[in-house]
Amino acid sequence: MKKAVFILCILLFAARSCFYVDDSQYRVEIDPDFDPVVTFTSSFDAIDSIRIVDSVLFKYEISIDTGTLYYADLYLANLHLFRSDTLADSLWLYPYYINDGELYDITIIAYFKKYTGSLADILDAEPYIADTSWRVTFFNYLK
Amino acid sequence: MHPGTRQRTRSRTIATHSAHATVIMKRILLIIILAISLSHAKGQDSGFSITGGIGTYDLEALKSYHELLISRLPVEARGFNYFPPFTNVRMNLFRQHTEKMSYGLVYAFSTTGALANYTDYSGYLNLDQVVTAYQFGITASYRLLNIDFASTRFDISAYGDLQLAYVRDEVSMVIGTDYYYENNRLVLRTISPLATAGLDAMVHFSKLSVGVEGGMLFDTGAEFNAGNASYPESAVSLSPPSELKSGMTGLRGGVKVIIRISKAMINPE
């Protein structure tokens, strides 16, 4: 009996909140299937077989028809080269940094907002991804 | 004088008087509680009662605060459980002063809350406000009607409480998405003087009495302190409006059980 009263007292004094019987949710249906058109253009587009012997300036531009770019990551194979939050940027590539005569992919991954109106989108926490890559052969002229 | 100056001065004066009255009432209550605690109990019957039930809550200021919080949200959330009638527990340790009158200490616990939610495919947002009052004070009861039948007795008594309530209002907002999570919490506190008046109808057996109890609680409405949010960089400010006051005023009712230490006063004949 004493134990039961003690437990009851502890519960009463320690309890500090109500609990909800009705755990309803207000679910809003949003259709996120709309995909904006994302296009990538670069200074390598006009070249059929990209061979880099000397240093070269790689320029790119991203256009998103109904979205906004958060940032873009540029990779050389799996190596992360840099991150930019502008739609157009550039980078000098030096062939002597890497193995001679091998094929590499230069990849741009763009993270962008597409204005779905969802909670995550409003909080700028819903990045959609688009990417493209260019296959490049590097020749190390110093070897 | 600037037109607003007089109004500001008057508001400050009213607030000062209210705070002064609260302080005096708290001191009086403390003195009475101490006096009852230290009083000599020899030769008196005593007992313990517990009432479990439900209470309604006015909470006008907290309701406005909740609406203000909902209006600040980045999405259109919908409210559920808007400070509904909720748990109320009242415990009373009493001494039978005369056949008709008893007095003692009382502890009561009241709580309710409000919840707003928004959910879509990308995540959820919960805005939760829970207000809880821990009430300590003194109580007195006077028997109005007594009917004896067989070995039991039925009576109706009026009771009144004077209490100090530690009122705690906790606001929490949780946002969960794949790439963004936030759990922000704000706790507001105050100590508010309360008064309760009500009736109970009891059937008394040997050492046990059962019945119902109901009354009205009046909260004088003390001002909450300005709490600090746990996450100041939150997407939504939880800061309360100025002069946010407690408002636990409402009806209280429930099932009451009394356990008596001595049965002498039950069947004094």
Plain-language structure description:
The complex is a heterodimer of chains A (143) and B (269). The model of chain A has no long low-confidence stretch (mean pLDDT 82). Helix content of chain A is 12%, strand content 42%. The longest helix of chain A has 13 residues, at 2-14. Chain A is elongated and about 90 Å long. Chain A is mostly beta strands and 143 residues long. The N and C termini of chain A lie far apart (91 Å). Chain A contains two helices and eight strands, in the order αβββββββαβ. Chain A has helices at 2-14, 119-122, and strands spanning 38-42, 50-52, 56-64, 68-76, 79-84, 88-93, 103-113, 128-138. Chain A has one domain (2-138): Immunoglobulins (Immunoglobulin-like, Sandwich). In chain A, the strands form two sheets. In chain A, strands 2-8-7-4-5 form a five-stranded mixed sheet, with no helix packed on it. A three-stranded antiparallel sheet of chain A has the order 1-3-6, with no helix packed on it. In chain A, strand 4 (68-76) and strand 5 form a beta hairpin. Chain B is an alpha+beta fold and 269 residues long. Chain B has one domain: Beta Barrel (Porin), CATH 2.40.160. In chain B, 18% of the residues lie in helices and 54% in strands. In chain B, strands 1-3-4-5-6-7-8-9 form an eight-stranded antiparallel beta barrel. The longest helix of chain B is centred in the N-terminal third of the chain and has 36 residues, at 3-38. Chain B is elongated, with a radius of gyration of 23 Å. The N and C termini of chain B lie far apart (74 Å). Mean pLDDT of chain B is 83; it is low at 1-18, 36-43 and 265-269. Classes of the chains: A mainly beta (143), B alpha+beta (269). The interface between A and B is medium-sized, with 27 and 39 residues.
